[in-house]
Amino acid sequence: MRDIRQDLRERLTNLERKRDQLQAELRIIEDESAALMRLLDFEDRRFPDTDERVQHPERPVGDSILQALRVRSLTKDEIRDELERAGYGRTGSLGRTTHLALVNRNCPGSVIGSAYPEL
Length: 119
Hints:
Layout: H1 5-46, H2 61-71, H3 76-86, H4 94-105, H5 111-115
Helix pairs in contact: 2-3, 3-4
């Protein structure tokens, strides 16, 4: 039989080195997590009244535009106002959204194509 104590000491040293590396990585992750939590707290203070559970309309923007146009003729501004009342205005630039939806729906013979020839 041979003495394996030296081998065990080497294995223990390697494990301790590996543990130290993992602890250093964990400290970095914890520091990043703490920094992100501070940023989130700061943003929560900046926007205290925002509700993360905002209900978004189920119908696509283009379909809502067509529905509004079935009721009466509307200008782009009136369409934008209708969309805002329907809840589409919370997600970004409603003017761009309205414009793109109108352009995407502008097909020969469509409601928008005949109602808005200047588009």
